[in-house]
Amino acid sequence: MGFSKEEISKSRRFWSSLWRGIKTVFVLFTMFLSFLLVSAPIFLAVADALLPSALLHRLSSPANLSSHLTNYDFRHSLIDIPLISIVRSAVILCVYGLCDGPKLSRGPYLTITMICSVSSLIYVSLKAAFVFGEPANGDGGGSYFRAAEVALFLCSSVLAIGHIVVAYRTSCKERRKLLVFKIDIEAVSACKNVYPRYQMILQQERLK
């Protein structure tokens, strides 16, 4: 049983519109991924400021948070973990906003990010040795509180490592941009130097 021309044209229009829709979704998804990659330092800094604070809020009530601030103890209080994350993300974000292309490639952005991340990693590691060396003493007690503590320390450490990775990738990307820009400048200047000589040789050959 054959198909009519109208059915064939409808089928072609359907598949054509479906293919255009797939291509549009693919282009939008690619643009969204590129936007995430370009804005990775900003998104990571925001996540670093929010996630540890949210985990600590799940661990303690607001009253306990204020008591942690007034009765701070390095071996038991966890309030300093999100505070370190907030300070770290604020410093890195400010440096990223103040740096341009050359400074992002070889300048203070990568250096300050490394210093902030490594120092915070050392602090969190030392604090974890004290905190997990003693029994859990949280509001809920038991395994849930200990698992939440582990998640808080892991979150802060992973975000610190993420800052280093993102800063290194941003530095490499800006270095490649500067290299391409330098090659373009050298090519243009070489053409400017060669073209007058070529014109002079042509004039000399015409006069002969």
TrEMBL record:
Keyword Hydrolase: no
Transmembrane segments: 21-46, 78-98, 110-130, 150-168
Keywords (A to Z) from UniProt: Membrane, Transmembrane, Transmembrane helix
Superkingdom, natural source: Eukaryota
Protein name per its UniProtKB record: MENTAL domain-containing protein
